[in-house]
Protein 1
Amino acid sequence: MGSPSVKRMLMANHGVKEPCFGVKIGDMKKIQKRIKKDYELALALYDTGNYDAMYFAGLIADDIQMTKKDLRRWASNAYGGALCGATVAWVTAGSNHGWEMALEWIDSPKERVVACGWATLISLVAVKPDDELDVTELKRLLQRVQKTIHDSPDTVRYQMNGFVIAVGSFVKPLSELALTIGEKIGPVTADLGNNDCRVPFAPDYIRKVKDRGTIGKKRKSAKC
């Protein structure tokens, strides 16, 4: 199912490296429907180091079975593309260790692991009911972002900005605070490679959600 054009795009514009087949996500989802969940297969696929296999592993992973050791290995090996912001974050948020892993990772000395941590927090606030979230800790994390975002590496800065948007959009008690902090942070820039990815201005994004009347509306799953 590999596509040379998709492979070229991933490798040239999204930091993906060999081995990679360039399989379209839509084609992966056809296989996902047949397999549904398979913990052992997901682990084996991720450990191949093949980008397509690693991404697909996240789609079929049985999140609840994932151990801390599994998640740490996945975060450590998430090198580019959508592995940090999607694959690892989605699976970790669906596991029993999401909050703990996210807080551990955002203090890591490794940029990609830190990005995994903030991306996991984004997924968590998007799916967890507000009464299952530590609102006090989320306030502290918003303040941390305000203080450190502009001095953080590009991939981390992108995820931090996404965290402000996610809290403002999905956590109703903190929506106004996230909006205020987004204004104080101001526009955020990040070099995300030779692609069309842009860093949205958090306050504008949150206001759009507010105008739709969907502040606090959760997603059924972090995976999409």
Protein 2
Amino acid sequence: MHTPAKTEAACWSCHAPHAGGHFCAACGKIQPLPRGADYFAFFGLSQKLWLDCAALERLFHQLSWKLHPDNFVRASEYERELSLERGSQLNDAYRTLRDPVARVEYLLAQAGMRKEGAAKQQAPPELLEEVFELNESLDELRAARRADGAEMGVLIERLEAEEKKFESRLCEVDEELKRVAAEWDAALDAGGEDSKRKELMVRMNDVLNRRSYIRNLVANVQKELAEAQ
């Protein structure tokens, strides 16, 4: 298959100047994405973390209609391939950006700051004592289950209280993430220095790590409670 030459500055079909977007303003042909375009750029958005979700949904449906393969039945093979590729990218972009936490994680991943591994599993220093007590309660519940202990009811109540406490902690972390994300948006509006944006990314990464750890704790407690009841 012949693939037309691609440039970032001109339409591949009519060679008119192309400033961006999914279609050429001159001839209407679908265009390849610019090199390095991210999910925000896909929707014509800046990298701000507050989004109007209703407006994002409208953009999604508009693009879904414009990029649908049915609109390219009589187009060239190259255009049909672009349509299919863009439709998949659209779904991924929408699924990511509509979720506030996934949005932050994506922004940081694009900057190479979301690393999977042991660092995310370290207990936050301020929670060490509470995590230690929780692990003791879990161990006691497991031992009581093996021995069919009569104190199961008391242990379950204790763990349910622990679960509520850590769910409350998770809500606090989510609120903290919102505050730092708002600082990020303000820095973008103000044209903040790179050092300021980097500092905010580090802070958001730290909050996400704590969030991941606490969420895993809550999931573990819920699993143990479900098995005990």
